[in-house]
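Data deposition worksheet. Section B asks for the primary sequence of the deposited chain exactly as it was used as input, without tags or linkers unless they were present during the calculation. Section C holds the resulting structure in token form. Section D is free text for depositor observations; keep each observation to a single sentence. Incomplete worksheets are returned to the depositor.
Section A, Depositor: J.P.
Section B:
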Amino acid sequence: MSRRKVWLAIILAGAGWGSEGVGTRLAFEAGAGPYTVAAWRAFVSGLAILIWAGATRRTIHLNRVILRQGVVQGVAHLAAPYLLLTLAYENASAGFVSLFITLVPLATAALAHVLLDNERMTGSLFWGMAIAVGGVAFMVLSGDSGLGEQGRPLLATGLALGSVILIAWSSIYAKRDADHYDVFSLTVAQMVIGALILAIVMPFTPGSIGELNREVWLLILFLAVFGSVIPYAAFFWALQHARANLVALSGYVPPFVATIGGVLLLDEQLEAGMVIGGSLILVGVFAANRAEAKVASEIHL
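Section C:
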């Protein structure tokens, strides 16, 4: 397989995930409310993957395990994180929030250490996490959010970290049944169930829906296709053709895409607290990833 294609898939995945914060905040400016963005993005993403499954004649297998996991993943890996991150984008810049998304692997490792008997935390991983946590603390204490006085970094941090913890926990829960489900079928179940949950919740949130004009619809379509479906497809394709620690580099792309896009398209600010704190987060994540890659290579020797 061409190395150039693998790198293209890695960059495509990272850039797609990085664009979701910018697209979400642009939708807010166009008049959409947070529940509108979260619910319709989930719905269109689910519809897109169903259309893709039909076009490629992929079989969707449904059994008790997939339905149970679909409910858990639909709530904890999709509906709740979509909503929490969307609300976080109301209180901080796209670049600020995207930095927290890079913490998902660290949160997963920390919870795995507590919840799984066979996944112990190494010293290198611990120090990587400590550096990243220091970066989070620095960002919060600095008071910088990329939105100036309008930002609420503490609230945005709480919302983003809540999303990170839910994604990490649901990933560990999915691992329990890893040998008993088809990944594609579970992805479809997760997206459909998550979209249904958000659709049910949305009418009971008066004042949070906002307008549904042409610009909002285009942005929701962009978020669903280029912020969800394509990045996930590119990521999993890359995993099939390259080492996991190489594909993990896609996680470093979103903060740069979100920050640059926010500055250029939304007049967001690149503040000192974000630069220093964000750098510490990325250094911590990088150190932890290197430690995990080393452990993985030793296991396969």
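Section D:
Confidence is low (pLDDT under 50) at residues 295-301.
The chain has one domain: 3-299.
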